[in-house]
Each structure stands twice: as C-alpha cells, then as structure tokens.
Design brief:
This protein is of the alpha+beta class. Helix content is 26%, strand content 27%. Helix 1 runs antiparallel to helix 2, helix 1 packs antiparallel against helix 4 and helix 7 crosses helix 9.
Length: 354
C-alpha cells in the first residue's frame, strides 16, 4: 500500500487547482514537498517547477510530468448574473450539465454549478443534439450582473470541484488526475533517489500548460538542455465497457505503468526501461505509438538537436471528466520504475539507435 506520507502529498496535489495558465497553487504544493528531496528547486519564467539532484552529474536527465488540468474561463456575464464560459483545454460538453465548479478569483474561491435547460422544456428537435458550450452557463446564485461582478471577473479560471476519494484500497477517483499524477510520479521518483549516489544529473519538472499545446515542457527542456527525457502522463485504460481494444490496445488498471514503443521513443532508452522492469520485477504494460504522441514526450524529443525520449503512462478511466480513475499501485510502480531506470544511467550509457 502507498505510504501515508505519499498519499497525503497526492491528496494535496488533487486539492490544489491548476487549470492551464494558472498552475501556481499546485506548484506551491510541489515546492513544499520537494524541499527536503532536492539539491535545488527553481521556478522558471513560464511557471515550471524544476527540482534537481546531483546537478554536476552526467548525462543530464529530465523527468516531465505536467501539473495542469482542463478547465473553463469566465467569458461573459449576462444581465441576470449568469456566467458564460470558454474552455481551457479539451472539454467534453456532454459531461458538464449539473457539475459543481469552483471559480478561482483573487479574493478566493466562488462556488457555482453548471446549468442548462432541463429535458422537460427541450423541444423534440433539440433532444439528442450535440450540446454546445454556449448553451451552458454557470450559476453562482446572484440576482444580476452587478452582484456577479462583485464576486467574479472576466478571465477568472474555473475548475471542477476538487477532491480525492477512494473507491477501494487501490482505486481512487478525482478530477485532474490528468495529469497531477504525472507530477506526483516524477517527484516521487526523485524522492526515491534522494540520498543515493547518482552518476547522472536529474531534473524532475512539474511542467505547465500541456493541455493547451505542450508549452511548459518545450521551454523547460530548451532551458535545461538534457540528453535524456522521460515524460509521464496518463493513457486510456481499456478495461471498461464500449472501449475497442482492437483500436486502443489492452490496458488495465492495477497492471502497472504503460511503456510506449514507437517513433516518439528512443529505442535504447526504451530497452533500458524494459530491462529494468524485468530485472526489478516491476509489473508493466506495452503500448503501441506509431507516431508523435499528444504528450510532453513530443516536444522533449525534438528540442534543440534532439533528446533521447521515453513515455511512461498511467492507466486512467474516464479521462477529462470530473471522475477520472487510477490505481495507487500503478502510481507507485511507475515512480519505482523511473527511479530504478535513472539509477542505471551513467556517462557511458549510449542512446544512439543502432
């Protein structure tokens, strides 16, 4: 079972809002946690938090786990005080009606709910049609626009009501597991290595703005100029109804981290990860990725003259909803696999594909 200290850290991450472009609350949690596990901690101009061990080691290795989550943004307030929004990242509008949300303002959090016309008053031709974002609104319980503007402002970000809940001893649910679990894993991997003799320099980076274009990883990687990069993200579990394994592969919760194979992955680094998993008896799964992936691994690989890149993913059910689901043992095994792999990297490790 996950150590209570680690579970408390994971819970703190999940309770800290981090919509793309507004990640400061969750990054404060990261800095507090990693203060005793890092030789140095810095925050770059983009907002990436960079935790470093053995900075003079070689080669330089970057672990990237983005901390930002999808969300909404206040775009317009009508005369009756109802709030209309724009999306931050990939929002599925079909899951939004009836959702409890938190609006993040300079004065604190304002609670709201997402409303729409109830089914009773929908015209027959409206039923079953695709729901557009402009057909929804956020209700904060005010009487008019003037009262609403005293509480919220244009541009305030909005997130699903935060919190983590255990469904069983090993299974948790929470909004924003994509991808605060990535930040959790890369920093936990560094914690596992703290106090051990490393030959490489290790940078665990809580990257920002992945959900709107892999932006934080691009700038952090350019600044650090690593030789090796390992991205940690979530991937679609396929162990629930109506998912076609012929298209999406066979990925199960609780069966370990998912190691990607394909063009976005450096073959020698992938071999090192696979051999480490076998040597240390760490459960793992394989995912076919024939092209560029929509993850931080994409930009890591093509930064400067190129970076030896790998992608390790955490199985996730119901991605980009309020009820994402992952396995605690998968998180632990992903952190352990990365730590054991990094411990084997030396100045003599050759990442040139043969």
């Amino acid at each position: 079972m996950m150590r209570q200290e680690s579970f408390n850290y994971l819970t703190a991450l999940q309770q800290a809002p981090s919509p793309s472009g507004f990640e400061q609350p969750v990054q404060r949690v990261v800095r507090k946690r990693m203060k005793s596990c890092s030789d140095t901690i810095s925050t770059d101009i983009h907002g990436n938090v960079i935790c470093t061990l053995n900075p003079k080691g070689r080669p330089s290795v970057m672990l990237a786990g983005h901390c930002d989550q999808i969300g909404l943004m206040v775009n317009h307030i009508d005369d009756n005080g109802y709030i209309f929004v724009r999306n931050i990242g990939g929002i599925d509008t079909s899951v939004l009606p009836g959702t409890r949300v938190d609006i993040l303002t300079p004065k604190g959090i304002v609670s709201g709910i997402i409303g729409r016309k109830p089914i009773h008053v929908l015209k027959p031709e409206e039923r079953g049609k695709k729901l557009e974002l402009h057909q929804l609104w956020v209700d904060i319980g005010v009487k008019d626009k003037k009262e609403a503007l005293k509480r919220v402002g244009i541009g305030n970000p909005i997130v699903f009501r935060l919190g983590l809940e255990k469904l069983s001893d090993d299974i948790i649910t929470s909004p924003g597991l994509d991808n605060k679990t990535g930040t959790f894993v890369v920093t936990e991997a560094m914690r596992l290595l703290a106090g051990k003799k490393l030959q490489c320099a290790l940078h665990a980076v809580s990257t920002v703005q992945e959900e709107i274009g892999l932006r934080g990883a691009a700038t952090a990687c350019f600044g650090l100029d690593p030789k090796v990069g390992i991205a940690v993200d979530v991937t679609h579990a396929t162990d629930y109804p109506d998912i076609d394994k012929r298209t999406h592969g066979d990925v199960k919760l609780g069966e370990g981290p998912v190691i990607s194979i394909g063009a976005n992955v450096n073959p020698p680094l992938c071999d090192l990860i696979l051999s480490t998993a076998k040597k240390k008896k760490i459960p793992h799964q394989i995912c076919a990725e024939p092209g560029a992936t929509p993850t931080d691994a994409n930009v890591l690989q093509i930064t400067r003259a190129g970076v030896a890149t790998a992608l390790i993913s955490i199985p996730n059910r119901y991605m980009h909803t309020q009820v994402e689901v992952v396995s605690l043992s998968d998180l632990e095994n992903t952190a352990r696999l990365i730590a054991e792999t990094v411990a084997r990297i030396t100045p003599r490790t050759n990442f040139i594909p043969k």
